[in-house]
TrEMBL record:
The species this protein was found in: Nocardiopsis composta
Pfam name, any one: GerE
Family annotation (CDD domains): LuxR_C_like (cd06170), REC_NarL-like (cd17535)
Location of the Response regulatory domain: 15-128
Keyword annotations from UniProtKB, A to Z: DNA-binding, Phosphoprotein
Organism lineage string: Bacteria, Bacillati, Actinomycetota, Actinomycetes, Streptosporangiales
GO molecular function: DNA binding
SUPFAM superfamilies reported for this sequence: C-terminal effector domain of the bipartite response regulators (SSF46894), CheY-like (SSF52172)
Protein name per UniProt: DNA-binding NarL/FixJ family response regulator
Amino acid sequence: MTLDSPDRASASPITVLAVDDNVIVRAGLVALLEVSDDIEVVAEAGDGTQALAEAEQHRPDIVLLDVRMPVRDGVSSIEELTRFSKVIMLTHTEDAEVVSTALRRGASGYLVHGNFSADELYRALHDVAAGTGTPLSPVAATVALNAMRSAPEKPVEAGDPAGLGLTQREGEILAAVARGLANKAIAEELFLTEKTVKNHINRIFRKLGVTSRAEAIARWNGVPPQEKAAVN
């Protein structure tokens, strides 16, 4: 049976390095991949050290990498392997910390044996080779989602009026305030009346939830707002 991807029908085959210390598992994986005419296993390895040597020599499109191996494990090899190839973890390991570490270190996907079909593996290889997807087994998807939910919100960058909910003009005025200019000097610099500048500053204070120039300048410089102390 030939399993070809329509979008790669006339392209070179996807080259793969299969890495697993279990010879039987690795042989089964290679046999599965060689069913497809547009996937070519160019090398095999039984640990992270061998994988790095084979990846440097063959420069495969994708490394299918196990986690727990002797000599050198898969996770500690990811960053170096990504200098040569994209990496998909292919393992029995479902530990959330391992999944998280692998993805942080640059793995393009994380698949757990028993949680994907042959067709899904072929599709994962095509998606990663084309840069159009990040294949994740259910446990890996859950870890990635939880990490995204728990990540702190990106702080507002210093000098970013839009990030503070200010108009461009309000940003110009607050920038002038941060430079230490008084209302009269700001009015002269921006060709406004002093009253207009004062009105803008009052609106800026309301938008930022501050009551002083010092607080407004701190917000402009990227300092997050301080929580108000509870009144008993």
